Structure formats: structure tokens, C-alpha cells
């Protein structure tokens, strides 16, 4: 380090660049006068504001629409299945359909997805079937996690979708490490990591951004700022102007986008990907949205926010209706095709539940495999114990779990 003070020009050559001296005792203000603007393409009525966005083809637009409707339908029916006691837990993505589907549409299949848990739409976009979702939710023997994970902890090697793990924000540093590995291997790909505003309130978020900035890791940090971390509103989480402003603190280019505008999300993520892959730089995207459903099936959000607020977001700001208005005006969808699409998807989801429910559960032995090459003595003992207990009390154990 060489701190050479240049008295003539009043600058300090300090690691990272020149620093000018000043005789003004100025603190950097804690806020800016105006909040960071939010990029959008479609107004609330689905009219493009201008032409400054990526033009998408009819086929892509229709797939975005179909997948958003599929996600919404899965949410409605799987949520009901939990209420009926057929599955133990569920999390909806209501209100965040554009974030899920349009961001996925802007990526390439070689890019790795590090989800939080409210992004099943990214997996849907990549071709994970409704039946595969249902098998996971029922934890049957066709579930790739062999029934060991909570419902909604989807994962797929085939789709480069890292398995969901509920401890909040652990995926953030992992995504940076994986992005760095992609860069070292000279791969033409990036990672994208999704997280909520609550995820940004953890230490892992800050560590991840700092490492990414320093290592020039090709990672897209995608924050779904939906206003709440369960019952904690963002106003109780941070005093900054949201999450977007935190990027600059770590030397990371950042953008704020309207998360309920599929075209804006698509365009922003496509540009972010270019920066990550061509320039080997991390990017932060903050999508402003609203969690239009309860946090999970264990939550009742009317206890901490007004029902009228939820209703307003569900209707006036619904991302699916906004996108629909746009594609209808483009002449790519009419009401007949729309109702056929919806009834078709509904049938598929109901059918998937019926099939998944009948598939037997993974065998007991699967509880003890896949961690150790040779199971240690304590696990062997536990397996013997559980088998003997079941033999003694068969009436207490489900009949669809093979021994
Ligand atoms: C480390 C950790 N702390 C607390 C929890 C409990 N928890 C589960 S989800 C959640 C809120 C996360 O909110 P956010 O990141 O904003 O995502 P959102 O649910 O709004 O999509 C919390 C606190 C957890 N799973 N892990």
C-alpha cells in the first residue's frame, strides 16, 4: 500500500483509486431525496409505456402466459389439497408469477438456479412437469428427494435447479461460489440466486454480495421484495431505500424493476445476464412486488395486514391480468383459447394429485442411505430399532410405507 499524498492536486492515491480531499465537513446523507426509480414496460392496463424493452416472439409470450396460469392453478389446487389434509405443507407464489416465469424465460438452460422457496415457476419454465411437482409434494417414491424433504423443497439435477433448503439465505453464498467456479471453468453461463427482502436482512446476504463483488463472480442476485418476511414488514427490516441501494455498497451494478410486469422483469434479467456472462460481473435486481398469499399454510396474514390491501394487489396489480391485456391486444390470445387453457391446466393438476396420492411411499431403508458409503454403527442401530418397533406396533405405522 502506498499512501502518496499529492499536495499539489489534493488527492490521495489509495487502494481502489484516487480520493479527492475536501475542506467541507459533509456526511453522506442516509437517504437520497428521491427513491430509486422502478423500471417498467407495461402500465397498469397492460399498455407499453414506450418501446424501450426486448421485443418477444409470440411463442415465448404465450409460454410465459401459459406457465404463469399453470403456476397460479397449481397454487390454488395444491393449497386446497393441504387444507384437505392430503399434503402436510404448501407455499404459494401468488402475486409473484411474473417474477418467477419472466425471469426464468430470460435465462439460458446452462445457468444454475439457486432458489429460496417461492420460485417453483423457474423450474416449471424449465420443463419440470406438474406430475413431478405433485410427487414431491406427496413425498412418494417418485420424489427425487425420496420423501426426506419438506413439501415444496423441489430440486432437479436435470434442470440445474439446486434443491430448496428452508434456512433463509444459505443459497446466497453458495450461488456466488458456484458462479466463481463457472468463471474459472470458462463456462458461458451464470448463476441466479433468488431471495426475499427477509433474505436480504441476513448476514449471508452481505457476505455473498461482498464476495461476488471482489471475485467478479457471474451471479445475478434477484431480490423479490414482496414487502414481508412472514409478518415482519420491510419498514421493520431496514431504513435504506429498499434493497437495490445496497448493491453499490459492494461495487455491484443494480436495478429496481416492477415485479408485476412480466416484460420489465424479462428485459431486466436478460440485460443482467449479459453483464454477468459477458463482463463477468455480479448484478443485483430488486423486483418490487407483494406477497399476495399467506406466507405459507402455517400463516394467516390477515392478522398483520389489512384484507383490503391484499385484495388491491390481487386485483388491480395482478401480473397475470396485466400481461394478458398486452397479449390480447397483440392478437395472440382470445377468451375462448383462454378458458380452454385454464380448464386444461386444471384437469392436469387434479389428475397429477390423484396419481401422486396413489404412489407408495419410499421404503424405510431410504431414511438411512445416501449420506454414508457404509452406515455408521449408530445409524444401523436406529434402523434395527425402528424395524423392531414397527413389528411390535404395526397398527401405528402407515401401510403405504414399504418395510
Ligand atoms: C435462518 C432462518 N431464520 C428464520 C427462518 C424462518 N423463516 C422462514 S421464511 C422466513 C421469512 C423470509 O422472508 P423473505 O426472505 O422476505 O421471503 P418471502 O417469504 O417473503 O418470500 C423466515 C423468517 C428460517 N427459515 N431460516
TrEMBL record:
Family of the protein in this entry: Belongs to the BCKDHA family.
A Pfam family of this chain: E1_dh
Organism: Capsicum annuum
Cofactor(s) demanded: thiamine diphosphate
Protein name per the record: 3-methyl-2-oxobutanoate dehydrogenase (2-methylpropanoyl-transferring)
Enzyme class: oxidoreductase
Single Gene Ontology BP annotation: branched-chain amino acid catabolic process
EC number(s) stated in the UniProt entry for this protein: 1.2.4.4
Superkingdom, taxonomy of origin: Eukaryota
Amino acid at each position: 500500500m502506498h499512501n502518496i499524498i499529492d499536495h499539489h492536486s489534493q488527492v490521495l492515491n489509495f487502494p481502489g483509486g484516487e480520493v479527492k480531499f475536501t475542506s467541507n465537513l459533509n456526511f453522506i446523507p442516509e437517504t437520497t431525496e428521491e427513491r430509486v426509480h422502478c423500471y417498467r414496460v407495461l402500465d397498469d392496463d397492460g399498455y407499453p409505456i414506450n418501446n424501450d424493452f426486448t421485443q418477444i416472439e409470440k411463442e415465448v409470450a404465450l409460454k410465459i402466459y401459459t406457465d404463469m396460469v399453470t403456476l397460479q392453478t397449481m397454487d390454488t389446487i395444491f393449497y386446497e389439497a393441504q387444507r384437505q389434509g392430503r399434503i402436510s405443507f404448501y407455499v404459494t407464489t401468488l402475486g409473484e408469477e411474473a417474477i418467477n416465469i419472466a425471469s426464468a424465460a430470460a435465462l439460458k438452460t446452462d445457468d444454475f438456479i439457486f432458489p429460496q422457496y417461492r420460485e417453483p415457476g423457474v423450474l416449471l419454465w424449465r420443463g419440470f412437469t406438474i406430475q413431478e411437482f405433485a410427487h414431491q409434494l406427496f413425498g412418494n417414491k417418485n420424489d427425487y428427494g425420496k420423501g426426506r424433504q419438506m413439501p415444496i423443497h423441489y430440486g432437479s439435477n436435470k434442470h440445474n435447479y439446486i434443491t430448496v433448503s428452508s434456512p433463509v439465505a444459505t443459497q446466497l453464498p453458495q450461488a456466488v461460489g458456484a458462479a466463481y467456479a463457472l468463471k474459472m471453468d470458462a463456462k458461458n453461463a451464470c448463476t441466479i440466486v433468488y431471495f426475499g427482502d427477509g433474505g436480504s436482512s441476513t448476514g449471508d446476504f452481505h457476505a455473498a454480495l461482498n464476495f461476488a463483488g471482489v471475485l467478479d463472480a457471474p451471479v445475478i442476485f434477484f431480490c423479490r421484495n414482496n414487502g414481508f418476511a412472514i409478518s415482519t414488514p420491510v419498514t421493520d427490516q431496514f431504513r435504506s431505500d429498499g434493497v437495490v441501494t445496497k448493491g453499490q455498497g459492494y461495487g455491484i451494478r443494480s436495478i429496481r424493476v416492477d415485479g408485476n410486469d412480466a416484460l420489465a422483469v424479462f428485459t431486466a434479467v436478460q440485460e443482467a445476464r449479459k453483464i454477468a456472462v459477458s463482463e463477468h460481473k455480479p448484478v443485483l435486481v430488486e423486483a418490487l412486488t407483494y406477497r399476495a398469499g399467506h406466507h405459507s399454510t402455517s400463516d394467516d396474514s390477515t392478522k398483520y395486514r389489512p384484507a383490503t390491501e391484499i385484495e388491491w394487489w390481487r386485483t388491480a396489480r395482478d401480473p397475470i391480468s396485466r400481461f394478458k391485456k398486452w397479449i390480447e391486444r397483440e392478437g395472440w390470445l382470445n377468451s375462448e383459447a383462454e378458458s380452454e387453457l385454464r380448464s386444461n391446466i386444471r384437469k392436469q393438476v387434479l389428475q397429477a394429485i390423484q396419481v401422486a396420492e396413489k404412489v407408495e411411499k419410499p421404503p424405510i431403508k431410504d431414511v438411512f442411505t445416501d449420506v454414508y458409503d457404509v452406515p455408521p454403527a449408530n445409524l444401523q442401530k436406529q434402523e434395527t430399532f425402528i424395524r423392531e418397533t414397527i413389528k411390535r406396533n404395526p397398527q401405528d405405522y402407515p401401510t403405504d410405507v414399504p418395510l
